[in-house]
Amino acid sequence: MISAERIPNNVGLSGNKRLQRALEHWQPKYIQWWRDMGPQGFQDYHQVYVRTAVSVDPSGWAHFEYVKLPEYRWGIFLADPVHDRRIGFGDFLGQPVWQEVPGEFRNQLRRLIVTQGDTEPASVEQQRWLGQRCPSMYDLRNLFQVNVEEGRHLWAMVYLLHSYFGRDGRDEAEELLARQSGNRDKPRILDAFNEPIENWLDFFMFTMFTDRDGKSQLLSLSESSLDPLSRTTRFMLTEEAHHMFVGETGISRIVERTCQLLERAGYSEDVRRLGGIDLPTIQKFINLWFSLSLDLHGNEISTNAASYFGNGLKGRAQEEKWNDHQATEAMYELDVPAGGALEAKTIPMRTAMNEVLRDWYVTDCDAGVQRWNKIFERHGMSFRLRLPDRKFNRGIGMFSSLHFDPSGVHLSNEEWERRKHEWLPSPPDREYLLSIMAEPVYEPGRFANYIAPPLRGVNRQPINFEYVRTEA
Ligand code: BYC
Q1: Which of 125, 181, 268, 412 has the fewest Cβ atoms within 10 angstroms?
Q2: Pocket around ligand 1: residues whose beta carbon is below 6 Å from it?
Q3: pTM for this entry
């Protein structure tokens, strides 16, 4: 029986029999999926010190306790309603927001919610082996925190599907558990969510760059005229911030450790001989995960995006910062490929909404990279990490059939094939990373040689706290 204790919520679950029944039907399938596709080897004999959202107020969404992962209390929360909220953009600007799904936008809204929902279990699947290679107990716990919250984000989307989309919604909720990351026959919807995350450099880059796409997409969905979608995604953003913290600080700690190793060895030594991660490898993983995450913003010119905006389904990040919320006349200039060169083209702003969000995303990523570069400054080193050009390694959009180097210089197919591993992880790079992660570190307070300890522990606990307990 599903109860408020079992599923903490602020959506009046106990008074909504229809929703309760639908979730009761779905929950055992979810738990089975979590056991099969969630963290491998950490289901039954480990207690993890995780935070659980038990309400949306600041004291309630970070309640810490030890739990066995399959017993985590995945809750359903909507941010508090905004009094007299009005539609903030598009053709219905200024009208009251919707509490129900308008029939004419049902398919589009379902598609957006399903696409968002699909990424959440996908990321858990991608990360399911990482516990076996963890650099410390602190990091192991952070991995599981991210995983359970992605699980909760799936619950959030399933709640919307069950509540507002009837039979179709229930079918889609089942499909969210049936597709599998990387599966040839039933892959996840968006490409980046079918890529393997096999080592912790992948994981930290994923939480830095791909979770940041989560941030840009959730910001734009939180502008939605469908109020329950807006309120759900607004609350998800509080959790997303922690995931990006895990990624950004994870890389900071690797960079810090690499600088220390270089300093100790007099800068001339190959860091790999000291068991660290060399800076060119770190740069390659930035190139990979940044470009994959750029793809997640869709095509540069998109009639889907125009229609989402016009219909008020999906806005821009921080829509209130724009002056013109209808964008009927506004234009957007972008470079398009023309022969071997690029040509400036002006297109209606509405069709450029994916690109507008990508602009926001690139700026947000760049600020993070500049924070990493401060570490080199502190060590008196001239090396700098950077984002590759937007055209580099694209799989979606108008540059996907062409090749560019990280500075944006156009390359022939032949040159790309010959040189791509100068810029992207090569099989030997991956082998090396797996070799230094082969022995997991499970001892409280100890850290793998390639990563520095964090500045502080979780929830004011010491760094050597037993974040994951093993049952005898
Ligand atoms: N891979 O008109 P276009 C997160 C398809 S991450 C494969 O540009 P649209 C998280 C597209 O489906 C955030 N296919 O499409 C992070 C379409 O197919 P059809 C997730 C792609 O709709 C870490 C065709 O190309 N949330 O939360 O404007 C851990 C035409 O494209 C891709 C969302 O994505 C791709 N990358 O834009 C956990 C928000 N891109 O119709 C979680 C909801 C495009 O021709 N989704 N296609 O068969 C959306 O807003 C939109 O679906 C997209 C795509 C922005 C993704």
Answers
A1: 268
A2: 112, 115-116, 119-120, 123, 150, 190-191, 210-211, 213-214, 217, 295-299, 302, 304-305, 314, 354, 396
A3: 0.97
